[in-house]
Amino acid sequence: MKNLHRLSILYLTLPFLIFLFGWVRLAIAIPLGLFFLFTLWRLFKQPFNPRSPLFTIHWSPSTVYWLLITISWLLLSGIGGYAFQNWDHNWRNVVLRDLMNFDWPVYYAQPESGPVKMLVYYVGFWLPSALIAKFTNWQIANLALFAWSLLGLLLVTHQLAIALKTSNLKAALLLIFFSGLDILGALFFPQGYPTVFPPITHLEIWAGNLQYSSFTTQLFWVYNQAIPAWLVIILIVILSEAKNLWLNERETLRSAQGDIRGQLVLLWSLCFFFAPLAAVGLLPYVLIELVKHTDFKSPFKHLNPAIVLTAIIIFSLSTFYFLANTAAQQRGFQSLAIKDFLAFFLLEGGLLWLILAPSKYKDPRWIVTGILLAVIPFIHLGSDRDFVMRASIAPLFHLMLLAGETIFNQAISRSLRITLYALLLLGALTPLYEINRSLYRAYDYYFVQQDCNCDFSTGPVVKLDQPGIPEKEHPGALTADALPTLKFMTDELSQNFIANVRQSFFYKYLAKR
How many domains does the chain have? Predict the structure, then answer.
């Protein structure tokens, strides 16, 4: 477990270190970076239980299947450009391309007076690949992104298996195929799109602009937020069981509980750096664990100040950077008809949550998950419904964990087991539709079509058309490459990525010029 934990922490902290030295003035970045490295050194000295398993692979048939399935899942996601890319990859690709082609920080305009336009987005996940791209080319950048994503998925699925006390293969299959009952939404609330046939439609949008995305959908559309968020969540779950990680001497365990609290805060701050909306949904679970591991008679005893201060630095720098973009300043509450809310809640996880009640109602994670799934649809942030889709990552992940614990580790009645499997199988149709769409378009590209007839114009692009039917996007091409750069973009969607930062605190006092 020690090596696995260290590798996971390094995976999450390396992008922030790259951001620190790429975006922040060296007079600030150097002392903060040295302190950051000192904190990691102290963290890695933590005494883990030597009997805990290391990150080793035993070459059984199950392990081979786990690797093959995980690699295939990643290939079909479109990451790297080896299979069909959904519409959102237009934005993912252009961010990586601009990180490769522009100096850091990425300024699109920096005049003496007037708007200073900067790339302000959740760029963390791309930074290791973009750094490699600086010295190579676009193809190597995509290969590096694929390899970086694969490492993240292997870390997530392996630790999910540890948390659920099951095999890596079963954990990977649960992550890939866990979803809400979107197929029932498309059947019972029909509209022009999505339809049940052909089985390549995007079932997630059956409720219009309300969506709790399956994990396959998250990987296929917003991998830059999903993979690091999943890794942080599963690390927090494993950290919460201190007795399984640390030596069991009483004083050592008390000290470890202080370190657990520091690491919980550190991990949450890293999630905020990669995916701030996902971090909002994760916060209640972190608070639960902080309360669980706090001795309120001496709450600050054994708490590692270096880890806490590092977490504050990560959160503060991330906040100043993100606040430089005012696109997400619109916030409020969205009214929903009760019938629409009930249909969405029940089909997108609520029914499974209720069925788990008899065995999980005493678990605070079950309570928080239900509250979040019920409240999130009413919250509006920014110009679209991204908050609903991304803040739900943590409660959906915990719902999957609760379901997995019940199926794999608990003695349950035959009727409950059948019911749970039936719901999981119905939900699995959503990721299957996503996978089928990628297979269909990739097969068409590699084996059917003769001539693309695509218009790869290299002139300035100022706007991107709204998405149409997902399976018909960018016909004749695998990759979603409609945007050569964000530099000339002027439409509303591009404002989620480009900001006038002249008056922002980050630009005035922190950013490299």
Answer: 1
The model's pTM is 0.94
φ and ψ at residue 329, rounded to 5 degrees: -75, -20
- C-alpha span between 225 and 202 (Å, rounded): 20
Phi, psi of 463 (to 5 degrees): -155, 160
Q: How far apart are CA 110 and CA 501, in angstroms?
A: 10
Residue carrying the six token digits 């009413």? 378
- Read off the pLDDT of residues 404-428 as tens digits, 9 standing for 90 and up: 999 997 788 889 999 999 999 999 9
54 has pLDDT over 60: no
294: phi then psi, degrees, rounded to nearest 5? -110, 130
Answer whether 261's CB lies under 8 Å from 294's CB: yes
181 assigned to some structural domain: yes
User: Structure tokens of 130?
Assistant: 């973009």
How wide is the angle at C-alpha 264 spanned by C-alphas 261 and 270, nearest 5°? Answer: 145
State the Rg of the chain over Cα. Answer: 23
Contact 511, 25 (CB under 8 A): yes
Domain limits at 85? 2-51+62-436
Let me know: does 488 contact 460? Beta carbons within 8 Å: yes
Q: Where are the beta strands (DSSP E) in 112-267?
A: 117-119
**Total residues found in the chain within this entry:** 513
> Considering the domain boundaries, does residue 411 fall inside one?
yes
334 closest CA partner among 282, 391, 279, 274: 391
d(CA 232, CA 272): 10
The conformation of residue 356, written as its DSSP 8-state character, comes to: T
DSSP for residue 240: T
Alpha helices per DSSP H over 410-471: 414-427, 429-443
Whether the Cβ atoms of residue 163 and residue 238 lie closer than 8 Å to each other = yes
- Residue 511 located in a structural domain: no
Q: Are 407 and 420 in contact (CB under 8 A)?
A: yes
- Asked if 484 contacts 461 with a C-beta cutoff of 8 angstroms, the reply is yes
Quote the DSSP letter at residue 435.
H
Q: Is residue 225 part of a domain?
A: yes
Cα dihedral 418, 420, 422, 423, rounded to 10, equals: 160
SS3 call for 364: helix
Residue 304: CB atoms within 10 Å:
21
In tens, the pLDDT along 337-378 reads 999 999 999 999 999 999 999 999 999 999 999 999 999 999
Percent of residues in the chain assigned helix, strand, coil, to nearest 5:
65, 5, 30
